[in-house]
């Protein structure tokens, strides 16, 4: 007697059971089967070779088994038609690792999204294509979402080791974005828009000061954390109470001749795009947190 172990809403591995009957041969290394009335996918070397509907699947130490939730099975079966099941196994490992370390539930669809993403990345390597898509948000993700970045960095290590490849660090950013966009029952993240807005504000400052920001510095990380919450307020159009700090802000303007122009460019962009008006306190905080530091 073997116990079935189901730990999440994504397909998961469990112990072998006798009486597994083939429902459909998906390819030489993958079959759809029935186990005690439950639909499963069995993957292993040659598990589908010369097999037909109704045949039993013999136990083999190299075989792996997935239980498939109803809401996922059609998408998963369709994915497996053109994606090696190994990518699904690795994606599942990453999803479970992320949920454990983030202590948050992720949407079941993330499994399929990651499997497809990994497949495409590995396919480029197999085809000898060394043209990679640069992740323009990588620095912002690293600064704004440290936990997701760290998990995605580990995920890239898992992928590289599992498939003996060396994917670029840009993949860390893409994996992190997939995670950020697939928090279950979460309304506190508009992650991509926050990252985009933070990047635009930083870019405006770089243009005014005619120099690149050191994105590896502590000051940049601290400024990005401020921009994360500032951007969230802008996107939600939240109002905060204005304080009487005009004199302090004027002192900053006197010390830096480019400061007023930089703040003006940010202010103009935010109003034109979001109809959001910067209050004096926000202008001062931008000045304190960023402009004198670089």
Automatic annotation (TrEMBL):
One of its GO terms (biological process) is regulation of DNA-templated transcription. InterPro entries: BglG_antiterminators (IPR050661), CAT_RNA-bd_dom (IPR004341), CAT_RNA-bd_dom_sf (IPR036650), PRD (IPR011608), PRD_sf (IPR036634). Keywords: Repeat, Transcription, Transcription regulation. It comes from the Bacteria. One of its GO terms (molecular function) is RNA binding. The keyword Transcription regulation applies. Transmembrane segments: none annotated. The keyword Nucleotide-binding does not apply. Residues 82-189, 190-294 form the PRD domain. This is Antitermination protein.
């Amino acid at each position: 007697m073997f116990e079935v172990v189901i730990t999440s809403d994504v397909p998961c591995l469990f112990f072998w059971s006798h009486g597994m009957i083939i429902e459909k041969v998906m390819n030489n290394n993958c079959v759809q089967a029935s186990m005690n009335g439950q639909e499963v996918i069995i993957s292993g070397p040659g598990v589908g070779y010369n097999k037909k509907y109704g045949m039993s699947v013999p136990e083999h130490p190299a075989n792996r088994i997935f239980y498939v939730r109803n809401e996922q099975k059609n998408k998963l079966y369709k994915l497996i038609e053109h994606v090696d099941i190994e990518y699904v196994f690795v994606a599942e490992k990453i999803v479970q690792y992320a949920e454990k370390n983030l202590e948050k539930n992720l949407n079941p669809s993330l499994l399929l999204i990651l499997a497809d993403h990994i497949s495409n990345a590995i396919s480029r390597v197999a085809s000898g294509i060394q043209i990679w898509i640069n992740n323009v948000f990588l620095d912002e993700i690293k600064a704004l979402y440290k936990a997701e970045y760290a998990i995605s960095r580990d995920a890239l290590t898992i992928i590289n080791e599992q498939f003996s490849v060396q994917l670029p660090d840009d993949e860390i950013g893409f994996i992190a974005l997939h995670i950020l966009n697939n928090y279950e029952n979460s309304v506190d993240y508009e992650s991509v828009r926050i990252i985009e807005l933070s990047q635009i504000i930083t870019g405006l400052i770089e243009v005014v000061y005619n120099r690149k920001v050191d994105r590896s510095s502590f000051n940049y990380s601290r400024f990005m954390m401020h921009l994360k919450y500032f951007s969230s307020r802008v996107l939600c159009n939240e109002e905060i109470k204005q304080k009487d700090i005009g004199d302090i802000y004027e002192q900053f303007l006197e010390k830096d001749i480019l400061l007023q122009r930089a703040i003006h460019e940010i202010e103009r962009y935010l109003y034109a795009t979001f109809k959001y008006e910067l209050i004096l306190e926000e202008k001062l905080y931008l000045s304190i947190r960023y402009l004198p530091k670089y």
